[in-house]
């Protein structure tokens, strides 16, 4: 602690303070001690007593900058009306416990920090071993450095830090950066207490943040962290979040490699063991998860009996990516099946082939080796084109239900920005959040971004093409299923269409298809009167319009207290036709004449 030449005497004084701290009933003063305290009999150690211990007392030892007070070994109370000499000197409670051989964390520190959970592995996976060994080397170096961990997920980063700290013989505590006092004086006081604790007991500190990214900390939290980074002498490990490629000159940055598929599969098999009839191959093919997430999900899916329910396991995997997609995407909850989809056989068969490719992606790309031939174009992407209401969204819901995936609808008109680079940023945010797997991305209103590519006349045209190319690039590499929907296929450049694997046409319904749509649009519990489905099919409406008419007719019938029959259907149809810009009298006259 750098006491200098006063070390022997200060240690002697510390022993006396320890003695009197444990025997508070004893008067520490000799008979002539009243000269130091104006004859006030004080039953505690004071400045005067400390000065009397030494033949040549050094006031510097008791200065705020001296080791005793800098390291908070002693505490001095200012006693009103008695002056400095009679100020009470107390040995810090943590130091007293240390001298008595009791290991306990300082009370103030304990309100900020908590122990880090032990690592969930005996040894890191092969992909993480270089990062773990480098962290271990830095923690055991003669001059410990500030280390920032990037990549992986939070649980994985914490476990790697815990593994390295244990191998280095260090305890590891965790501090949330947002909890640090923002005021410089208070932050420095915390820093001194931490440094003292690290000397008494070998420790390292893991600094995390609720925002998951250190570079996104609020300004006040940044100030508190800065004090620690600038002045601490002890090992600090920063949970930097996902790698962003930025440099950090004041610290060593360790990038944690992404866990490859075969190691994810091995970990699934290890954590599940024989507790569930779960296809680890399917989990690995669908979800791209870090080891920490796999361990957490397996624990969440467990039951009191120790078994793992496959449905709970799958749902927990899906839930990992939901929180990240909320800003730009709307989650749809499909409750439909193939029978709800009225399409020509060719188009319906194409949709089934899309689902089959998603299901068998791992077999073809990984087991059979097609993925090793080229990394380009491995994403399964589709364009759905057809008039509004012809079933594009319904088809996306059917695919999501068939695959047991989540479905997110992204309105491209809301993603496109007039600011350069902002559109790509929004697209990146969507795909990055969805990369954990099990998600169908349905990009609606694709016309907002796509158009027939022509000669680039200005910078706006050039950046528009960059945005389109970036979207297609992400769709080509996305491990899930991505779908573009448009009402105007002819407006899309053929060069862009060639980069999509499937193009599915949603034609206007034929009479037979329209009749089938009318037949299935009413719930079984609805009170249905006499309906002439053949005449209703002649109206020439899409499935979306037919559903609108059925819903509005149901409200008319409920209000009138009748069944849903032809009169209320025709009344609702007239409203829908007007909305579409058609003459309802002509259309309704045509069906009455049949």
Automatic annotation (TrEMBL):
<dbReference type="InterPro" id="IPR050221">
    <property type="entry name" value="26S_Proteasome_ATPase"/>
</dbReference>
<keyword id="KW-0547">Nucleotide-binding</keyword>
<dbReference type="GO" id="GO:0016887">
    <property type="term" value="F:ATP hydrolysis activity"/>
</dbReference>
<dbReference type="Pfam" id="PF00004">
    <property type="entry name" value="AAA"/>
</dbReference>
<protein>
    <submittedName>
        <fullName>ATP-binding protein</fullName>
    </submittedName>
</protein>
<keyword id="KW-0067">ATP-binding</keyword>
<dbReference type="InterPro" id="IPR027417">
    <property type="entry name" value="P-loop_NTPase"/>
</dbReference>
<feature type="domain" description="AAA+ ATPase">
    <location>
        <begin position="378"/>
        <end position="510"/>
    </location>
</feature>
<comment type="similarity">
    <text>Belongs to the AAA ATPase family.</text>
</comment>
<dbReference type="InterPro" id="IPR003593">
    <property type="entry name" value="AAA+_ATPase"/>
</dbReference>
<dbReference type="InterPro" id="IPR003959">
    <property type="entry name" value="ATPase_AAA_core"/>
</dbReference>
<dbReference type="GO" id="GO:0005524">
    <property type="term" value="F:ATP binding"/>
</dbReference>
